[in-house]
Write a structure and sequence with these properties.
about 140 residues; 5 helices; about 75% helix; about 0% strand
Length: about 140
């Protein structure tokens, strides 16, 4: 019985699906309406748009690779890819490091849904690593004589 496949694949797909919808909405709005978000001094709006678009593609590629490796049961690689993908939600919260965006409530909420998706993925990754590294009583060796 492969616990990571049987108990983990459905929640992973739900988390990734939610994250994909949330980050797609947020990052798209961030590209289209980049001037509405706090700017980092020295970085033009056009440069910010390119960085955000490239970042979304790169993060999403890591998420896809993580899912693919998980399905293939290559768990350490999968979890590493998924950990990198989770940073897309953390990056969204980075807006607050340079100021509060002046955007409609719906788009503002996507900053928090991105972060919630990242948190859910971290909880999943913690469970998966703990499950993967579980030592059963059968695997233990006694040091008692």
């Amino acid at each position: 019985m492969d616990v990571l496949q049987e108990k983990g694949l459905t929640p992973l797909r739900a988390i990734l699906g939610f994250s994909l919808v949330s980050t797609t909405l947020h990052y798209t709005h961030n590209v289209v309406r980049a001037a509405d978000y706090p700017q980092i001094p020295g970085i033009s709006v056009l440069a910010a748009q390119i960085i955000v678009a490239f970042g979304w593609v790169l993060f999403t590629a890591f998420g896809w690779l993580g899912h693919r490796e998980y399905v293939r049961k290559s768990y350490p690689r999968a979890l590493a890819f998924l950990l990198v993908y989770s940073l897309s939600g953390l990056a969204s919260a980075g807006h607050f490091l340079v100021g509060v965006p002046r955007i409609p409530a719906f788009w503002f909420a996507t900053i928090f849904t991105d972060s919630a998706a990242a948190l859910a993925l971290w909880v999943f990754l913690t469970w998966a690593w703990a499950t993967l590294n579980r030592v059963t009583s059968r695997d233990q060796v006694s040091t008692q004589h």
